[in-house]
């Protein structure tokens, strides 16, 4: 589902990704950890077309992200095709970025109606299903300001799911939450993983990584330092930098 081959990202003279190679198969969950500034968000943003890869190849579901290959040359993808690729990828950020002037249900049906031209009745029915799936059936008419951080984040997940994505990206989805609200969001993510969603999760929740992740990738300074089954990486890290990082977060 995701195949990164030597992915690089430069911001002017600053190289933030220095050749990331990794693969995520359908239905797998990859957890991505690493110190602040190591390039985790930038990598997710490249997958989701928020940044453009500057060298290397990045494929999602077999398609080159943002470019097309003609002959041996890469050409930027037509914006319409880039938008179509992006539509199939859901992303949830650290800060719940719900539309404040819309109810939970309105937030969820907005993109399916505007982007996918779904009929309102269909979008509403699916929206209610999704709210139930994240445990918020009774909050359809609540505005974001009337919801807790954990509830807002669950609406954000439902909103991403409303586009029927084939891949979900999570960028520290629980980092801005009060500790007692973290579990309810992780539970929703765990259920999603159990139901076969392909996911890349940037997180500091090592319990989640251990129990839900198929792979754990430790990034530092724009490179993958170490990757493997979560239990192995967590209990028997091979690299000094991994050991040092884990000793701070575990
Ligand atoms: P992480 O998510 O692991 O904390 P980021 O991907 O956010 O790391 O950032 C990695 C590096 O890239 C940081 O040094 C950050 O300052 C830099 N960076 C991120 N976005 C930009 C940008 N738009 N322009 C310039 N530098 C950026
Ligand atoms: Mg980040």
UniProtKB/TrEMBL annotation:
UniProt keywords, alphabetically: ATP-binding, Nucleotide-binding, Transport
GO molecular function: ATP binding
InterPro entries: AAA+_ATPase, ABC_ATPase_HisP-typ, ABC_transporter-like_ATP-bd, ABC_transporter-like_CS, MetN_ABC_transporter-like, P-loop_NTPase
Span of domain ABC transporter: 2-246
UniProt KW Nucleotide-binding keyword: yes
SUPFAM superfamilies named among the record's database cross-references: P-loop containing nucleoside triphosphate hydrolases
Keyword presence, Nucleus: no
Highest taxon, organism lineage: Bacteria
Family: Belongs to the ABC transporter superfamily.
Protein's recorded name: Amino acid ABC transporter ATP-binding protein
Species whose genome carries this gene: Jatrophihabitans telluris
